[in-house]
Design brief:
rod-shaped, mainly alpha
Length: 91
């Protein structure tokens, strides 16, 4: 009886270890790489980036005293500058 239990447990162990052994023997295949090129920005996105760069240049050109007298921080300056460059400034 013990021989049967030993044989059954040995068989169960060998069957359980078989997938691990097969996985070790099989060559590791690299997953297919995503070879999609980076998407180019749309015309609107490119224009927004250019406006942001231009407004950033203007913001950096202002001295601290000018920034303090103007009052707004970068987000407010960006909003006004963006509207002005888009042509939506009604002032």
């Amino acid at each position: 009886m013990i021989d049967r239990l030993f044989a059954a447990s040995l068989l169960a162990f060998s069957l359980a270890a078989a997938p691990v052994a097969l996985a070790k023997d099989a060559p590791a295949e690299a997953p297919p790489a995503a070879e999609s090129p980076a998407k180019a920005p749309s015309a609107g996105q490119a224009a927004a980036r250019e406006r942001q760069k231009q407004c950033g240049t203007e913001w950096r050109a202002l001295t601290d005293a000018q920034k303090a007298s103007q009052g707004p921080k970068w987000p407010q300056f960006w909003s006004k500058c963006n509207k002005r460059l888009k042509g939506h400034d009604k002032a």
